[in-house]
Amino acid sequence: MSEDAGRPGPSLPVIDLEAVHKRYSTGKLEVYALRGIDLRIEPGEFVSIMGPSGSGKTTLLEILGCLSRPTTGRYRFNGRNADAIDPDGLARLRGEEIGFIFQSFNLLPRLSTLENVELPLAYRGVPRRERKARARDSLAKVGLANRAKHLPTEISGGERQRVAIARALVNRPSLVLADEPTGNLDSRTGDEILSLLRDFHVEGNTVVVVTHNPKIGEQAERQVSIRDGQIERDEARG
Amino acid sequence: MLALDAAQQAVRLLWAHKLRSCLTMFGLVWGTAAVIALVSWGEGVRSMLERGFFKAGKNMGEVWAGRVSEEFTPAVDRRYLWFTIEDVEVLRRRARLPEAIGAESWEMLPATYRQRAVWVDVRGIDPEVMEIRGIPLAAGHGITRSDVDHRRRVVVLGDTARRRLLGAEGRLGSWIRLAGKPFKVVGLLEHVGTQLSRDRMLIDQHAWIPITTLQANWPKWWTDQFVVSKILYRMPSRAQLDETEAEVRAILAERLQVRSDDTEAIGIHSAVKMLRTIPLDQMQGLMFILATTTLVIGAVGVLNMMLDSVYERRQEIGVRLAVGARRRDIIAQFFLETFAISALGGLVGAALGVGACLALGALDAPEMIPVPVINTRIVVVALAVMSTVGLAAGVIPAWRAARVDPALTLRME
Q1: In chain A, is it the N or the C terminus that has fewer CB atoms within a 10 Å radius of its CB?
Q2: The whole model's pTM is what?
Q3: For residues A70 and A22, is the Cβ–Cβ distance under 8 A?
Q4: How many Å lie between the alpha carbon of B21 and the closest alpha carbon of chain A?
């Protein structure tokens, strides 16, 4: 990040959450999905966030991804106060610095795989020719160069998730957030997806995976467990 | 996102949802076409009636003399009344409002040409009547001032009278006889057709001669005065119908020494008044309401489709927001999509509506079938309403969907 380049000392954390609460109100009912989360993630870490369903891990991921704002608490993303950024600024931040991978892939069904991968570039205003080239590169990296013209409905689940990864990585984000990326896949395809994420991490990038699959959790260097909206355990692994 | 990409995607999405797009558009097409066709038809009815009523003379008033009403005199004393040429001259001098005043006298006379004989409605007229009635001439000239001054035996024939009397061989310059007296055909009137307002016979069946000639050859048996059967006048505008009538009535009542409110003594008839009694405005209002209802139903259909479409696509909106779309990108996308669909539907509907009107106009239909008159204003209004509703229907739900946290939109599954 250019603004940090000249600073001495340790680099800034990618993610810095302080006492984050998230409250949902549905009619008369008020539910706290997160109750006081403190979390720092340094650049280049591979972190898994584990927890049973309803523990608040998806909410946490949404906040990390600037898809949602904390009700109270503070979120600094790459040293910037995310709470003070306006919606358009957040959109830009999501498009340029964060890549999302979802359990259900979330590809747009009417667009070809190439066009799906192009989307983040298109919203950044990258010119068409450059966009196509970069999207092709990104598809090639996940081994799907030959699927560029296909619609998402014409390829397998594993391939769809690889397209989604190509889309998440096309802007070379500083953070990749994955929400149960293998949840809809068989174990062999799931392994392929995980190894793609590992490759990305090995290149020095930050990856956060939300899962309740312990097998994935084991792959991460750092495992954060949450329960009832609070961090239960935060341990580094071999 | 670049506008071109967005537009391209919009068209592709519409194409991908062909059925839905078509159904949505159907409401738009139907609504627009119906509004245009209905309002134009209403306009057509109005213009048909006006044409029919004004065929015998535009903005014309006709005055005749009758008998003094029983209301004002004992029954045994009811005088018979008639106008004379002096009355017309006085009226011409004193009346300020009428643009023109003419005198007409009539007789039913046997007319002969070679072996043919028919009864014709002979009208003795002056040049002012020519002007007031305004019937175009197919050939020759009308009754002139000089014809009247010299009591010439000249005749101008209506279209039907010409056909019946002269047949194929007769032409301008032929001599016919009216009750045995020779008259030269100096003019032929163009075909007038169905009149909604007439006295005795249709103009097509008239034979027009100078009023002085009629008076000299066939004086009324009951008087030696120069009798005028009917006074015609043209009011300056339709709005001045009542004032003009009142002025004419007052002057003539004084001349005939009757009360000016005695409508049996002096009768005044005008097609303008008849036209006013037909609730055309109400009819057109009704048409407009019907048409607008259709338009609103079409609009509600569009609204429903669009709401549905946006709701179904909340997931898509969420994904787009997650990969960096701003709210305005989302709104612009739906704006383009709905704009494309409303514009296309509106234009197709307008084309259909206008086309239907033109087709009906092109048909060689009988005169009394109204030909729609296309009203540009209603075309514009219909298109504007349709596009506004269509755009609102697309943009408002998209705006609402893009307003909430992207996380909420994404979770809708």
Answers
A1: C
A2: 0.69
A3: yes
A4: 15
